[in-house]
Amino acid sequence: MWAAQFPRLVFIVLAAVGTALLVTRLTGMVVRRAARGRYAPFLNTLHKECHRPFRAVLLVTALIVGLPFTGLSGPTRRPVAHVLLLMLIYASAWLAVRVLFVFEETAFRRLPVDMVDNRRRRRARTQIGLLRRLTAVIITIVALAATMMTFSQLRALGASLLASAGVAGLVAGLAAQSLLAHVFAGLQLAFSEQLRLDDVVVVEQEWGRIEEMRLTYVVVRVWDERRLVLPTTYFTTTPFQNWTRNEAQVLGAVTLHVDFSADMAILRAEAKRAVEESALWDRREWVMQVVDMTSCTMCVRVLASAPDGPSSWDLRCEIRERLIHFLHTQHPQWLPHARGELTAMTMMGGALADADGDESPN
Fold this sequence. Notes:
Distance between the termini: 129 Å
Shape: elongated
Strand content: 5-15%
Low-confidence stretches: 158-172
Structural class: alpha+beta
Strand order of the largest sheet: 4-3-2-1-5
Number of strands: 8
Oligomer: single chain
Radius of gyration: 36 Å
């Protein structure tokens, strides 16, 4: 019996493979011809990223269509049909996930962030990225659920579990509570505009940028190239600084301690030169003020605006270094000094101590 069916089976398989390859080839030719103008990047990316899962879907579909013509009987045909159905589920899920990646990449290409005011584009990229990941997870879960539903034993097991789901459901809910909290926190961050990709933040006393946002965690690239990985619930339960939530421009502060004898007019003129000669200043605003004082010094603060967080950091360092160099080379007497007061009684006591020392025997 197998000897009689084998040639037909081989012919059906080869025909299915040939049909799938032919349709894939023709589809690729049509896409390349249509890939012109503004839709060319999207179609080229779609063909490049999806041709393998698309070919797999076509191949499995062709095998399913050709299965009735193979002559296989019931006991042999049922497991083959089951395996082909599972392959179709996984190939379709693979294709759907790759299509999501293509749409995400196309959206990111249309939303570049290499500009000064990129707040809205960063917000859109953050939301699109999280939605893509969430949809991919949902597709994977649906594929696994569809796989389980193809087994009659698992369907019966699922029915029995649902019938006695009191304690089991409570345990599963408690086990998944932490994961679901992180997932919902990630969605809340994306759609409440509390946090976006490339935002400048200060968390855990560390300054850095949001490099990556997942459903359950956020990666912060710290200024010294370290990576700080925090759960998404951290940003919904803990206060943090977001320097670029409303706009990318940042106002940086430099604080110096100088002696009371310092001439504020001369120091303000030097601070003005340091700010205006810097290429990092965005020409928006700057000011120098005496904001506080101690028992020995005055606290002088220089505020200067910059187009973004990293530029503000470098601008502050540049202004601080220039003012310290100015004080050290031009007016060292304005640097902080410790003062003391000599009274008549103190001088008399010192003189008596010196006299007693001179009269002491050797």
